Amino acid sequence: MTLDVLIVGGGIIGLSIAIELKLLGASPTIISRDFKSAATLASAGMLAPDAEQISDPAMQQLCWQSRSLYREWTCKLENLTGLNTGYWSCGVLAPVYNLENNLPPSCDLNSHNRYWLDGEVIHKCQSGLGKDIIGGWWYPEDGQVDSRALGKTLLSAVQSLGIEVKEGIGAEAILEEQCRVVGVQTKTGLLQANHYVIATGAWANELFPLPVKPKKGQMLQVRVTENISSLPLNRILFMGNTYIVPRKDGRIIIGASSEDVGFTPHNTPVEIQELLALGISIYPQLQDYPLEDFWSGFRPVTPDELPILGSSYCDNLTFATGHYRNGILLAPITSRLIADLICKQKSDPLLDNFHYSRFQTLSPKISSVLTSTKNSNPLLSIVNNTHQTSITDTPLVIAGKVFSSRLMTGTGKYRCIEEMQKCVNKSGCQIVTVAVRRVQNNVPGHESLAEALDWEKIWMLPNTAGCKTAEEAIRVAFLGREMAKLLGQEDNNFVKLEVIPDSKYLLPDPFGTLEAAEKLVKEGFAVLPYINADPMLAKRLEEVGCATVMPLASPIGSGQGLQTAINLQIIIENAKIPVVVDAGIGSPSEAAQVMEMGSDALLVNSAIALSDNPPAMAYAMNLATVAGRMAYSAGRMPMRSYASASSPLTGTID
């Protein structure tokens, strides 16, 4: 029998993904070697991205998004099962002994997610703290969940949904043929499915050459002996790698060691003693509570301590592993992203930051992926990772809004709405232009545009296409702003301004464009005007307050490529606002060339939509944009009128 989706791994990540897949209409099956050995049960259940001061921007966003989902997610599980997950938005208190190394400039004493408490306040806020504590940070948005209660709830939810769990069955090998998984070998036989998910945590490297290894953590538990109706400790205490996590039933968890000892089991006296000593120094009352339990577990850690999420080199295999210290925290967002990827073929741009290929060079297997049309973007992940670590660059900022992708795409000229969806996905873009008048008139391909794209992830750029006068364009711009609001983008005041009276060559009217731009800027619009490659007009539009200028490379939809290079270079060199080259780009090589010149971004539509394989072309434009930007940032070698040997002649053997 061929299963629908086979999830290898029965910890919190595997169980969460299975539930989300089931709710989206899939039929998942889980195989689990030993649920009791999963990191889920060993965790303290902290939900504390702020207190842990996660510095990687993508990881920070992933953690924040997941924490914001937690209340809704746990309510959903509790409604399914009638069990309590122990979710508690209790906040985290991070005590400080020494101001010198822990107190930032005074202007940062209170930020949107943390507050400084001086010595007097912190001891009033939490009695019983060590006398040497002279202040601390308060993180009100952080919290916790009872990991063991959550594990039981997840298992119960899986059972209530009719999801089959094959407990005690571990995967021994993954069988592959031509970049497809054809089965998972277990002791009980071969299991086959249409799609496979690897959620094996610290054991992932046993099945694939992924850089995931176990990081052992030891923990212990004491219990409050007083009347627990009034808990002596009602918020998490966190200092360095030591945390004290109170439960509402009187248990107090103290953790955790961090040991590179492989899968060495059991607790050790030295680590338990050190944890107790550190815990007591922070909260001395712990020494009076009876020691109730101690245990250890194995966190799955990668070299950069970030998870491995998303597609793989096999088109029916997805990775969800390497969560390190944040498996509990990231369960809601991981399950949502992976389920959307499998069931809806929707790849959130965040996933690119956690693709497995960031640890690999271009092997034949990865190279083969580049020719496919699946939702992964391994080369882009490699490029982005290199970009982040080797080349200094700034994000694309338009009217105060930050974008990581420098490629914009459109929604017109596609053969069908499904093709457009695939192309937007493969392009990796975050800004999509929408012709307001086409949506109004239900032009074919635009009837269900509101439902076709995820407007929580894609920023709409309303377009005044079809407007011949400044008056028309202004009127349509207001309609576009209302359309964006209807789709949930309340703060979207962007408009791509087009004033085109010429029906043959579709060249924009410079006078009408300038007139409309001035009026729209005064009305609070972020105006992105489409113009001829006219340096003087570009400067004038910048002076009236436009958010960008969008000069053409050649006539719109012509595919003639870069015909205005000299003027574009002048515009780029003199502009103090982003320059987005729009119109005429016909191939990825031309896209890369424009980016190498220093253009801030590209808008490409016809070259993608009118190609023989639009999704593949969208993917190619994505890579070209990144490559061109990287080349510009790196700086090309100087051109010479003479040859220069690659291998110097000095030091050669005579």
TrEMBL record:
User: Domain FAD dependent oxidoreductase: where?
Assistant: 4-341
**Active site (record annotation):** 496
| Name of the top EC class for this enzyme | transferase
Residues given in the record as 1-deoxy-D-xylulose 5-phosphate binding sites:
557, 583-584, 605-606
Pfam families listed in its UniProt record? DAO, ThiG
Q: Name one GO biological process term.
A: thiamine diphosphate biosynthetic process
Q: What is this protein for, i.e. what is its function?
A: Catalyzes the rearrangement of 1-deoxy-D-xylulose 5-phosphate (DXP) to produce the thiazole phosphate moiety of thiamine. Sulfur is provided by the thiocarboxylate moiety of the carrier protein ThiS. In vitro, sulfur can be provided by H(2)S.
Annotated family: Belongs to the ThiG family.
Instruction: Classify the main location.
Output: cytoplasm
Which catalysed reactions does the entry list for this protein?
glycine + O2 + H2O = glyoxylate + H2O2 + NH4(+); [ThiS sulfur-carrier protein]-C-terminal-Gly-aminoethanethioate + 2-iminoacetate + 1-deoxy-D-xylulose 5-phosphate = [ThiS sulfur-carrier protein]-C-terminal Gly-Gly + 2-[(2R,5Z)-2-carboxy-4-methylthiazol-5(2H)-ylidene]ethyl phosphate + 2 H2O + H(+)
Which source organism does the UniProt entry give?
Richelia intracellularis HH01
The cellular location(s) given in this protein's UniProt record come to: Cytoplasm
Q: In which pathway does it act?
A: Cofactor biosynthesis; thiamine diphosphate biosynthesis
- The keyword Metal-binding is assigned to this record: no
This one is known as: Thiazole synthase
